Amino acid sequence: TTGINHEVRTRVYPDGKKKRYDVYMRLYTLVDMQGMLSRVGGKIISAYGDFNESEYSPKSKRMILLIQRI
Q: Which has the least CB within 10 A, 15, 21, 32, 41?
């Protein structure tokens, strides 16, 4: 199941001016990614939970995928 994460970010410029940004990011599960990739000719070779190649789990803060075109 996918979800959408909404974050509000504020950038403060050197002159003190502030600009607000709304950032939306769609979130996918590993199963979602496997399905999308299989439909376009790809497969997941490895899934990691961070850039240090820690094992991926649903509680990981990141999903780093090594993908191969088939």
A: 15
CA distances from 68 to 33, 44, 46, 52 (A): 13, 6, 10, 20
Closest CA to 25 of 44, 45, 2: 2
Please give the pLDDT value at position 3: 85
- Alpha helix segments (H runs only) across 1-70: 30-39
- Whole-angstrom distance, CA of residue 47 vs CA of residue 22: 29
Q: How many CB atoms lie within 10 A of CB 59?
A: 6
Which sign, positive or negative, has the C-alpha torsion 3, 63, 67, 6? positive
Please tell me the pTM assigned to this model: 0.69
